[in-house]
Amino acid sequence: MTQVLLAVDFEFDLILFELLSDIDDVTIVARPADEVELLAHCRTGSADVVIVGRYFPGLDAEVVSAITATGAKVLGFGDDAEAMSALGIAASVGTDADAAMLATALEDVRDATVVPPRPASPPGPVGGQGRIITVWGTGSSPGRTLTAVNLADQACRQGHRSVLVDADTVSGMVAATLGLTEESSHLASLCRSAAERLAHLAPDTVPHAAVRDDFHVITGLTRPERWPEIRASVLESVLQRLAKIYDLVIVDVSDRIDPDDELADPFYDRHCATRASLEAADLVLVLAAGEPIGLQRLVKLLGTPRAEALRERMRLVITKVRSGAVGHPAEVRIREVLDRFVRIAPDFVLSDDRATADAAMLAGKTLHEQNPRSSLGQDIAEMVEDLAPSRKRARRAGRGRTKGTARGRRRRVRQV
Description:
Layout lengths: L1 E6 L2 H12 L4 E5 L4 H9 L5 E5 L7 H9 L3 E5 L3 H6 L5 E2 L5 H13 L19 E7 L6 H14 L4 E5 L7 H5 L7 H11 L11 E5 L2 E4 L13 H11 L5 E5 L19 H9 L2 E7 L2 H11 L2 H5 L4 E8 L1 H4 L3 H12 L6 E4 L2 H10 L3 H4 L4 H13 L23 E4 L2
Parallel strand pairs: 1-2, 1-3, 3-4, 4-5, 6-10, 6-11, 7-9, 7-10, 11-12, 12-13
Antiparallel strand pairs: 8-9, 8-14
Helix pairs in contact: 6-17, 8-9, 9-10
């Protein structure tokens, strides 16, 4: 007896139901309404074969992969075999199939041996030559977006081709910080293309906004409720592919990671983007504000299993450091507190230059554009030099600093 899940386009549902009813030893287990219900049925182990249509709600390459991971086989139903293959569906039948043809296809798929797909690229280091740096941290606004934006800016000025990715699914503010118009979400577009395997990611196909020639921005979600469009495995793949194109991939994420549970349903998990960005990162910058509440939250964060797992790749950054908040001298006081409670010294300490930060935010500029002598900007420049030593200066001397990068003169070079 072959147990079948029927997950096809609405117009073919009744046709297939009648065809399957005429086949002996075939039982239709369920006819789910969308990909969430479909995967829930697959995880129960009740289906041998899942018949899917190309336009079934929510179907993409990740869903197909999740189906096969449960042990069920997938049979496509439709007239576009190439599109089915792009989704990872090896076998399919046309819409003109009769009961006999469908029965044969079901039997072949059920008895077939699953062969892993051929790698798209030869074996080698995941992520290519570029580095992925994820900017994470505590709550209480330690300045994740401000730091991420200016890390990318300073990295570009030091000779690194950089891309800034806004993966904050709670409140993405990279576009607003840089004065960019949010006509659409570059990140959602990239994830959609990766999930559907529509095209190979190349420098000229990456949707982005250009702040300067070597400083690109992949804008985040235009509305917070669009978070289901960013799935963990797809985002991780996108970041790794970007690292093959850029020298540095700077990822700005939310502080939230819950539910951080192996049994959590990934299709109802708003914060999976943060965890995926942490997993993909070569380095994770953990930010905390240099004030009593910020330090208290940092101590709690460093005691979590997530922070313990990241210890080897983690760099601790204390922001907004000022004597008025913790006493004089501020950096010494902060180091004493951290040594006492967590036995960890901060890797970087960023001064509090609120006047420049406020003015830069108002104008849609980076700190260096607003004030090249900003103490905070210089601190971040030194941090970049430590994290990614400068490649060269002579090669970019003539084009490293492009004028006219204020709010009204940002330019979008590609939108797909």
